[in-house]
Amino acid sequence: MRTVTKFSIFMAAAVLIQAPWVWAAKPKSEWNEKKSQHFVVFYKDAPKDFVDEVIRSAEQYYIEITRDFGFTRYESWSYDSRAKIYIYKDQDDYVNSARQANWSHGAAFAKSKTIRTFPAAHGFFDSLLPHELGHIIFREFVGHNVSLPRWFEEGVAMYQEKSRRWGAHKTVKDAIDRGVFIPLKDLNRSLLDPKVTDEVVDLFYAESASVIYFLIKEFGENRFETFCRKLKYGSPFFEAMKGAYGRFGTIEELNQAWVDYLKKKL
Ligand SMILES: [Zn+2]
Question: How far does residue 135's CA lie from ligand 1's centre (Å)?
Fold first, then answer.
């Protein structure tokens, strides 16, 4: 009898101890979510109108970006293949919970089609959102295993930031005039210098945007799409470019044509 009592007490205690654990196993998620055709936005305590604007802008950019690249037969994101946008409470929450560098304002993860950011991120709607979506859409199109020059990948994302797109040619032309222009073949390396200055970083992004803008606007979206398709099916970078553009078979050739264009046009 005594043992049974002991056992009963033990069981009761186990249930009591167990119960909160069972409840805790399914806590209410700290994330709220809102879905649209191509996106799921996860947010913590962002205002409703901000979340609505994120959805509206993301859907708009999705259409514009696939169109700007000429990716007309792009496989649509819907249902389970929607992209995910996580909006953390603030920069601290983003840095700590998403484990990002403390200078970072947003990050894109192309394979999982995920963007992580926070409401006060610098240039949220005009720069960050189109830039990160540009990375994801472009990578999904060409594939994740294709190796690409960094200037090209960043240029493609920068091209989506319309507000910066227009100024890029001018910044690069000024750099040419001042003798600080970095030729394409040295551009990636310029960021590897441990003493790299802000001016060089800004120039890296401006040159990357400008050369992509040159390729798309001067020769059309169709050629750019053909070029990307060749990359997707395994052509080496400048072989794909020569095949699509009938020129630019080397990095020097592309660099020269782009610099000549800027000198003539601006
Ligand atoms: Zn980027």
Answer: 7
Query: Which of 31, 38, 77, 74 has its CA nearest to residue 55?
Result: 38
Partners of 42 in the beta sheet?
33, 86
| Low-confidence spans in the chain with pLDDT less than 50 | 1-23
Measured in Å, residue 153 CA sits from the centre of ligand 1 at 7
Is-contact 211 202, C-beta < 8 A?
A: no
The count of domains in the chain is 2
Ligand 1 center–CA 5 separation, angstroms? 66
Q: Are 39 and 88 in the same domain?
A: yes
- Cα 158 to ligand 1 centroid, rounded to whole Å: 7
185 and 101 belong to one structural domain: no
pTM: 0.83
Cα 131 to ligand 1 centroid, rounded to whole Å: 6
3-state class (DSSP) for residue 176: helix
Residues surrounding ion ligand 1 at CB below 5 Å:
154, 157
* pLDDT tens-digit readout, 156-213: 999 999 877 779 999 999 999 999 999 999 999 999 988 999 999 999 999 999 999 9
Domain span including residue 100: 32-142
